């Protein structure tokens, strides 16, 4: 997977190679998750058992894959996992602790591969814990973080772009020291229970109560979800134990405690809180998903947004760079096309990403950076690149000897047509186009014509180009409804001009075939109706029948359509036709 900024996005944006990579375990899990049908099970317990076994298989597959291949297996089954979780959420059959563990794997995979998420700062543990009988958060809440907090996940607040609510409400921990009673002491002695052990003992019922309260606190709590994914589980439980020991003196470890006694109670309490939080973070909040799923959606959108902005910055820089020559134009065009391809690829991934929540599911909209200016420059560069290729072809044609007078004239007319296409370019590309066309014109004008070039005979059945210059003829049949069907053959000469061969007249006597170069539509742009009729008189009668209308504008439109139809059938002219369309040369209704 590419590690550059435009391609690096971990479990979100996957390379084509990664997308194609499959494993037997991944294929089995994908199939099992996608094919799981609750209707094939009898009763709630059976559905829950089947669903939870699949989640455990996912966790087992990741463990078996090992750290080196963890990302690959997660990416392979990603869509199936998220679709399965969303499908099963309404039934409330999944062990939400298992859901949380699966979600955390995906978020941490994303974090490990996304520089865009490295600046996120999470609130310290003290923000999430509070003594039930205390007006303040805790004695340690004024500190930046709890002792021993992993520095790798704690960043300067200034660099943080908040994705979670800073107004965190603490979880009220309700633990009270049991008061001594002579009666209870007697009862405990009769039962053979040590009074000190009982005094500090937190009953199983109390632990279950704390777990349920912790679960309720964690449901939909994205701030707490962020704390979980940015802090290793062992480190987080150690911080909870430290907070409990600091805020509940009767649980503090002292030299007089029996080894394992008080420490055991801290372990039980911290585990109860951790388990409750984990279960709550995996509990869905209809119509949205669980808190960890919501966090994954927010983080994924941040990665996408960052990548799109990065591509826009690159494209913005390229779009303001002035091209000096054809090589520079080609490089700029290629670079902008590459950026545009990556942007479209990311947009497509966003549309199909199962981790992203829709607006109806409570997800926030993704603000795509506008790219109108960059798109306009790319379109201009494409037009400029095509113009320069045609200029290069003119130079190439001018180097052939002997250079006939008619050919020289045709080459200069081609350059005039290219000048007429310049309005399709942005102003920044005009100097390059102007220079290349002007230089080419100077080269062509400086060339000497063939002194033996004969003057064209208007009564001849072929023009000065000669049929030999057209390597291939393409045949089209026309029927205007008033005459018998007639045929026009079309091709291209060495100057990339449209050449036609047709009978001089449509009806008998037809007068034999004549070959003529067909002028481009731009030649007719400033002509009046009678002038256009004069041009058509030099061409086979078929052109007049198909192109002449009642008005000058109508004639220009019909002629443009005819020229487009004929030229489109000639492979050598297709690129020129496309460029003429972009340049607005055609005056028919399709322009």
Automatic annotation (TrEMBL):
Feature: compositional bias, Low complexity: 136-151
Region (Disordered): 131-154, 445-466
Name by which UniProt lists this protein: Kinesin-like protein KCA2
Source organism of the structure: Aegilops tauschii subsp. strangulata (Goatgrass)
């Amino acid at each position: 997977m590419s590690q550059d900024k435009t391609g690096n996005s971990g479990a979100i944006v996957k390379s084509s190679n990664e997308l194609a990579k499959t494993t037997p375990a991944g294929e089995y899990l994908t199939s099992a998750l996608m094919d799981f049908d609750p209707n094939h099970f009898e009763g709630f317990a059976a559905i829950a058992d089947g669903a939870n076994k699949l989640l455990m298989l996912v966790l087992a597959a990741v463990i078996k894959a090992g750290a080196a291949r963890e990302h690959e297996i997660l990416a392979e089954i990603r869509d199936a996992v998220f679709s399965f979780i969303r499908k099963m959420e309404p039934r409330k059959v999944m062990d939400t602790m298992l859901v949380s563990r699966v979600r955390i794997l995906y978020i941490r995979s994303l974090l490990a591969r996304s520089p865009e998420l490295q600046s996120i700062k999470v609130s310290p543990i003290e923000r999430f814990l509070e003594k039930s009988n205390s007006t303040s958060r805790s004695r340690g809440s004024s500190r930046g973080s709890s002792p021993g907090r992993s520095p790798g996940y704690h960043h300067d607040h200034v660099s943080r772009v908040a994705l979670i609510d800073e107004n965190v409400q603490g979880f009220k921990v309700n633990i009270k020291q049991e008061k001594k009673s002579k009666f209870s002491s007697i009862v405990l002695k009769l039962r053979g229970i040590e009074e000190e052990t009982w005094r500090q003992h937190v009953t199983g019922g109390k632990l279950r109560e704390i777990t349920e309260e912790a679960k309720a606190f964690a449901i939909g709590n994205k701030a707490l979800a962020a704390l979980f994914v940015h802090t290793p589980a062992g480190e987080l439980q150690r911080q909870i134990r430290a907070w409990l020991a600091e805020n509940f003196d009767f649980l503090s470890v002292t030299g007089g405690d029996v080894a394992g006694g008080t420490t055991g109670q801290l372990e039980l309490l911290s585990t109860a809180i951790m388990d409750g939080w984990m279960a709550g973070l995996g509990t869905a909040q209809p119509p949205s998903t669980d808190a960890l799923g919501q966090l994954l959606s927010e983080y994924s959108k941040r990665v996408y947004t960052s990548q799109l902005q990065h591509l826009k910055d690159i494209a913005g820089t390229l779009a303001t760079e002035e091209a000096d020559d054809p090589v520079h134009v080609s490089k700029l065009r290629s670079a902008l096309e590459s950026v545009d391809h990556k942007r479209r690829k990311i947009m497509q991934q966003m549309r199909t990403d199962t981790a992203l929540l829709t607006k109806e599911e409570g997800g926030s909209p993704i603000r795509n950076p506008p790219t109108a200016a960059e798109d306009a420059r790319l379109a201009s560069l494409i037009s400029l690149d095509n113009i320069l290729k045609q200029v290069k072809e003119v130079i190439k044609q001018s180097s052939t000897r002997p250079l006939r007078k008619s050919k020289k004239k045709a080459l200069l007319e081609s350059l005039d047509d290219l000048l007429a296409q310049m309005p399709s370019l942005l102003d920044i590309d005009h100097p390059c186009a102007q220079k290349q066309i002007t230089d080419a014109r100077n080269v062509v004008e400086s060339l000497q014509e063939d002194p033996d070039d004969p003057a064209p005979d208007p009564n001849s059945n072929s023009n000065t180009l000669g049929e030999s210059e057209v390597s291939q003829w393409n045949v089209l049949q026309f029927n205007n409804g008033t005459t018998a069907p007639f045929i026009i053959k079309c091709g291209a000469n060495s100057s990339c001009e449209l050449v036609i061969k047709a009978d001089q007249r449509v009806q008998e006597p037809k007068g034999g075939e004549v070959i003529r170069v067909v002028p481009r539509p731009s030649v007719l742009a400033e002509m009046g109706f009678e002038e256009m009729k004069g041009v058509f008189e030099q061409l086979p009668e078929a052109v007049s029948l198909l192109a002449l209308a009642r008005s000058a504008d109508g004639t220009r439109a019909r002629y443009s359509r005819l020229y487009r139809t004929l030229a489109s059938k000639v492979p050598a002219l297709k690129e020129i036709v496309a460029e003429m369309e972009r340049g607005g040369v055609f005056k028919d209704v399709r322009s």
